[in-house]
Specification:
Belongs to the RecF family. The strands form three sheets. The protein has a six-stranded antiparallel β-sheet, covered by helices on one side. Strands 8-12-13-3-14-15 form a six-stranded mixed β-sheet, with helices on both faces. The chain is 43% helix and 24% strand. The protein has two domains: 182 residues, Rossmann fold (3-Layer(aba) Sandwich), CATH 3.40.50; 168 residues, RecF/RecN/SMC, N-terminal domain (Glutathione S-transferase Yfyf (Class Pi), Chain A, domain 2, Up-down Bundle).
Length: 368
């Protein structure tokens, strides 16, 4: 699978631009702020139906526009497919594949898989468990539609339960019958989701360790430890007993939305005890393991997006990463870099076919 062409209208800094890509390495070069990352985000939209960097779709509309349009043409299993994403201000987002409009955007997830390695990936280590839950949810959801649908249903029931808790807090009246009605689906769906997460981690860990060994040239043991209370035998009792606290805080304090993923190296938390180099190696290994996992489960080679990684990694890790990506396991790759000469020295002559594009003045121009 690869992206043949991309057209943008009023998307972020672009008013109108069209560009054609090759099926292997595509390099976007230009000064910081020129719009290189915005191209990768447009590709992310076409794959996942949403931005990799903004929570609100309206933030992706050009300041001079009232809408944005992203069109991409993919080659998938020797068949061309057109993917369309558009949004008008104060309107519902439209998403189509070959003129078929989805009723639910979740139907599209996993059809055109991508993996993004970006500078803000260090949030996976530094930030809260919510960031790690989102990361692993995104992996599982690309190949397991049942998991995705269960997660959507769970979040719907959780939102309703939290609204009830707020109402009870404000009124001072308990409604045990309604609480029990919301507890039941949270328990059933939560246990289903937790079991999937648990089995996923077991299968994912060998991929993570193998890639960490390749990136770091070390034999340290890395792991992801998954903690959940949902699979406890007495979880239903815990949830019921916690109702009073939930009313006070106006939120549900137990459930899979509170699950923890802990990254460890030699059985110590990497967030606290890992060096900067070990943390960077783990982050790259996580993304490469994500790539392998999605590829094996979907039978499709994801598009790999590398955003500004040359400024974030030392020469040794760049060399290791490029060596890995240069193997036959990878297909189409997009790379952004602020320095054209560095991109040419690292990649030209080593990865063919390859195209280099100059991004400047809200335009994208292919270079010789």
């Amino acid at each position: 699978m690869f992206l043949q062409s991309l057209s943008l209208q009023y998307f972020k800094n672009y008013e109108k631009v069209e560009v054609s890509f090759c099926d292997h390495f595509n390099c976007l070069v230009g000064i910081n702020g020129s719009g290189k990352t915005n191209v990768l985000d447009a590709i992310h939209y076409l794959s996942t139906t949403k931005s990799a960097f903004h929570a609100l779709d309206a933030q992706s509309i050009n300041h001079d526009g009232q809408y944005f349009v992203i069109n991409g043409q993919f080659c998938l299993n020797d068949k061309e497919s057109k993917v369309h994403c558009s949004l008008k201000k104060n309107s519902r987002k439209t998403f189509k594949v070959d003129d078929y409009e989805y009723e639910k955007l979740s139907e599209h997830v996993g059809k055109f898989p991508i993996v993004l390695i970006a500078p803000n990936d260090d949030e996976l280590i530094r930030e809260s468990n919510e960031t790690r839950r989102k990361f692993f949810n995104s992996i599982i959801s690309q190949y397991d539609q049942k998991y995705l649908h269960s997660l959507i249903k769970y979040n719907h029931h959780l939102k309703q339960r939290n609204a009830l808790l707020k109402s009870m807090n404000e009124s001072g009246r308990m409604d045990d019958v309604m609480i029990e009605a919301y507890n039941e689906p949270l328990i059933v769906l939560g246990q289903e989701i937790a079991k999937t997460r648990k089995s996923f981690i077991k299968e994912f860990l060998p991929h993570l360790q193998a890639n960490y060994d390749r990136i770091s040239d070390k034999r340290e043991k890395v792991s992801v430890v998954y903690h959940t209370k949902v699979l406890d035998k007495n979880f239903a009792e815990q949830l019921a007993k916690g109702t009073q606290k939930d009313v006070i805080t106006q939120r549900t304090n137990l459930g899979i939305h509170r699950d923890e993923y802990l990254f460890e190296i030699d059985d110590f938390l990497i967030k606290k005890y890992g060096s900067q180099g070990q943390q960077k190696s783990l982050l790259i290994s996580l993304k490469l393991a994500q790539f392998e996992f999605i590829k094996s489960h979907l039978g499709q080679t994801p598009i790999l997006l590398l955003d500004d990684i040359f400024d974030k990694l030392d020469d040794g890790r760049i060399s290791q990463l490029m060596s890995i990506i240069g193997s036959n396991d990878f297909g189409q790759v997009f790379v952004t870099d602020a320095r054209e000469e560095r991109t040419r020295s690292l990649l030209q002559g080593k990865f063919e076919p390859m195209k280099i594009f100059q991004v400047s003045g809200n335009t994208i121009q292919e270079l010789d």
